[in-house]
Amino acid sequence: MTQPPAHPPIALARWGSFHVGGHETRVASEPPREVLFTPGSAPARLDPNGTYLVGGMYAQFMVPEPRRGAMPLLLWHGGGLTGACWETTPDGREGWQHFFLRRGWEVVLTDAVERGRAGWTRIPEETGGTAVTLTLENPWARFRIGPGTPQDGRVFDGQQFPADPASWRNFIRQCVPRFTTTDDLTLAAYGALLDRVGPSVVVAHSQGGFFAWRAAQEWPGTVRALVLVEPASTGVMEKVAALAGIPVLMIYGDYIEDDLRWPAIRARGLAFAEAVRAAGGHVDVVDLPARGIRGNSHMIQMDRNSDEVAALVQGWLVARELWR
Amino acid sequence: MTQPPAHPPIALARWGSFHVGGHETRVASEPPREVLFTPGSAPARLDPNGTYLVGGMYAQFMVPEPRRGAMPLLLWHGGGLTGACWETTPDGREGWQHFFLRRGWEVVLTDAVERGRAGWTRIPEETGGTAVTLTLENPWARFRIGPGTPQDGRVFDGQQFPADPASWRNFIRQCVPRFTTTDDLTLAAYGALLDRVGPSVVVAHSQGGFFAWRAAQEWPGTVRALVLVEPASTGVMEKVAALAGIPVLMIYGDYIEDDLRWPAIRARGLAFAEAVRAAGGHVDVVDLPARGIRGNSHMIQMDRNSDEVAALVQGWLVARELWR
């Protein structure tokens, strides 16, 4: 923790966190049990019956000074991840949280329902499902790092993800168990977040894109712009008209054509973008390789050129007059 | 998010996060399954066999400028909680993270193994046990807020915890499921943190005190001072000599005498403090009511007078010459 600062200091006017959203559920008729929480403490009687708060989420805000973003910029993580994916990169560089704070945006990171500091109280009892936990090996191919495994270490030509063994382990350590049955709770919690924060720019990655599209459709007066980084899914086709007033930027990385899943996911994204345009909306699609930006994995905000892509996002936001 | 700042801005030289600790474990011979991670995405084949990283933890650092603390100040949360318990209080005030940053300390918050952004990969498969999840009602009496339930709302005379219904719900929403079988993993991860951060002051609450005592005994050259806020347990009696060179401050709140569990927990803490002194160590014990500071619950860092107690800690650190 003693390396010299690579960047100038930043002034924060305010920073902090809160939990938001969720609902009450009641449990009755389960047997009490005795729990020794800590060795050397005293046993406590734990009655599991009562009221639980389920489906809340965690938000962490930092407000720089001076402030140049017209409104808060919300960073929504992908599945199996938390807000930490926008902080320091796995190889120790400043992340997108830093990038946008340094440009005067109020930045709000979140841990969505069931993940990170949101906690998974009464999930899966309320939602069903079992947690999916990733091996060290699993995302290597799925996130388009290389053809084999992290142990063999071969990466795609020009790969920008910091795929050295130490950085890969740092990345895997930040992955958290994931349920696939919490989408309704999560969308509701994002809505509660938007109600609390007010008009915002939403920058969403992967599964976060699924929630961002739908949140924009449900809260179109609050989501003022959408930046979707490799969104895993689309909005609802029947509500496409709600997106007419919300400018959208979609960004895709490299190595998609040879992937098993991403050609189909991207094609559906582009078809949805076309439908939004037909409904009077504005959608820009950036395939990074077509701009000469090569080597990006699915984890664009962690890739070595993460600042270059962030600068592209910043330029787009400036052009939308959301920054002054 | 538009209320005026109640405090002046702060300058950060650096901030960010990392994961640390944990070990590899291998799983074989489990059947693969197909997972549709996001509706409208493409199904993925998930092979649960392979290498998992288990028992890592999350750390989040902020380095103010100018820096006046002699070394980083690590804030270790209690059981069922995360690093968020040191951030904004449930009623929206600045927490101890803010207090110590504003006094020039580098502050490191952590989410210990299995909790928050640490994730619970292969817990409980590795450790056994089932998660304990708290009701809205449970900690009301156990954390010494009032005699009944949050629904009846009666609090102990002079109670400092912000126990209005909205704040109590904010507090409960930050509680996360908790295993009671992860102590060994957690202590090892705290050790990895200490190895990475280097000489530090450890400020620990409740269950965090159990880990702090033991970490100080295992890494006595790295833990340079201990501040234990209602520690739930003690160190190991056989290793009491390791604590001789580490000044310790223990703090207890109000309403202990009439509690079911805290008289015994505090008595064991005081007996251990006596043993440390007998081994040549320095332990100060502060019962807040004896200092005229009344009304503190178990969640001292969230109580309305949290800054007053933080100032007492700061004074003690200054007297130890750990701040300049």
Order of helices and strands of chain A: EEEEEHEHHHEHEEHEH
Radius of gyration of chain A: 21 Å
Count the domains of chain A. 1
Helix content of chain A: 10-25%
The helix tally of chain A amounts to 7
Total number of strands of chain A? 10
What number is the mean pLDDT of chain A? 96
Identify the overall geometry of chain A: globular
Helix/strand/pairing category of chain A? alpha/beta
Major sheet size, sense and barrel closure of chain A: 8 strands, mixed
Please identify, by name, the CATH architecture of chain A: 3-Layer(aba) Sandwich
Report the CATH topology name of chain A: Rossmann fold
| % residues in beta strands of chain A | 15-25%
The CATH class of chain A turns out to be Alpha Beta
CATH superfamily of chain A: Alpha/Beta hydrolase fold, catalytic domain
What do these coordinates show?
The structure is a homodimer of 324-residue chains. Chain A is α/β, with parallel strands linked by helices. Chain A has one domain: Rossmann fold (3-Layer(aba) Sandwich), CATH 3.40.50. In chain A, 24% of the residues lie in helices and 22% in strands. An eight-stranded mixed sheet of chain A has the order 1-4-6-5-7-8-9-10, with helices on both faces. The first copy, chain A, has a two-stranded antiparallel sheet with strand order 2-3. In chain A, helix 4 crosses helix 5 (207-218). The model of chain A has no long low-confidence stretch (mean pLDDT 96). Chains A and B meet through strand 1, strand 4, helix 3, helix 4 and helix 6 of A and strand 1, strand 4, helix 3, helix 4 and helix 6 of B. Strand 1 of chain A pairs antiparallel with strand 1 of chain B, so a sheet runs across the interface.
